[in-house]
Structures are given as structure tokens and as C-alpha cells.
Specification:
The protein is mainly alpha-helical and 161 residues long. It is 53% helix and 2% strand. The chain contains seven helices and two strands; from the N terminus they run ααββααααα.
Length: 161
């Protein structure tokens, strides 16, 4: 059970950076964002051409760096995060997403999100969701057991006992 809690904590960090753009901009992009060479050559940093939004910079006045994954990496620079592109985290994310798809387990999905992705005690989280503390704990236990079984940890715990 504690192993699953640790994995779910790592999943929450991985999910946060994946969905909230933690890896969206490179350090070089952040450094170059205000440089003069980034200005749009079509609208000359105005964002509009003949009263219309510029088709190249989309009204921003600056040209963005290319964000495609098929870039050449001559220095063979590797990703430094331990949570990005992790197969276990992707598997946990799939399991948690499946909780949301099934109407019988949707409440477990929202409890998992509240427990691992929101601040506060379990009592505060239960009050925010409009449910009792005991029902919150029961849903959390059911969800953790489901994740244990899906990851295959439930069988190894039974064999150990």
C-alpha cells in the first residue's frame, strides 16, 4: 500500500509537469524570448498587417521557436527530469484515466485527484467535494486497491503474507 502511495506521489508530479507545461519551453527559448532577433519579419513586431492579424506570428509580434519533436540534437542532450516519459507513470495515468471513463468508478477518480493533486488534509478535501470523511476514505481505499491490482502489486502482497 505504501509503495502505491509513493508511486501515486510521483505520478502527481509527472502529471503536473506534463499537463501544465513544465517542459513546454526550453531554457534557450526563455532566454531568447525578449531578444531583438525574434521579431516577426512580416509585421515588424506590430502583430497586424493591413489591419488583420499577422499570419506568421498570430498577433504576438515575435516568432516562436520550433517546438516539433523531430529536431536534430547534435550535442545529444538528454532530458534531466526523472518523471518525463516514464513508462510506469504513463501506465498509472492510463489506469487513473480508466477510473474516470467508468461511471461506477468516477467518484474514485475524483478522490484520487483530490488526494494526490490538491493541497489540504483529507477532511478538507472531503468537505470541498461535499462528501463525508468516511466516504472519502472508503473511495480512496477502493481506488488504491484497484490501482494495486492493475499494477500487479496486490498479488505479490498476498504471496508475501
Amino acid at each position: 500500500m505504501t509503495k502505491t502511495y509513493d508511486i501515486m506521489g510521483q505520478w502527481a508530479l509527472w502529471r503536473h509537469y506534463k499537463h501544465h507545461g513544465g517542459y513546454g519551453r526550453t531554457i534557450l527559448d526563455k532566454l531568447l524570448s525578449g531578444m531583438p532577433g525574434r521579431g516577426c519579419p512580416v509585421c515588424r513586431r506590430k502583430g497586424r498587417v493591413d489591419g488583420l492579424i499577422c499570419p506568421v506570428c498570430h498577433g504576438k509580434g515575435t516568432v516562436e521557436l520550433d517546438k516539433h519533436n523531430n529536431k536534430i540534437n547534435p550535442a545529444f542532450i538528454r532530458q534531466t527530469s526523472k518523471y518525463y516519459g516514464n513508462a510506469l507513470m504513463e501506465r498509472v495515468d492510463r489506469i487513473v484515466s480508466d477510473l474516470r471513463r467508468d461511471p461506477k468508478t468516477q467518484s474514485q477518480y475524483f478522490v484520487i485527484l483530490a488526494e494526490f493533486c490538491r493541497n489540504g488534509t483529507q477532511e478538507v478535501k472531503a468537505n470541498r467535494m461535499g462528501i463525508s470523511d468516511s466516504y472519502y476514505s472508503r473511495l480512496l481505499k477502493q481506488a488504491i486497491e484497484h490501482i494495486d491490482q492493475s499494477l500487479g502489486y496486490h498479488e505479490t502482497l498476498e504471496k508475501a503474507n
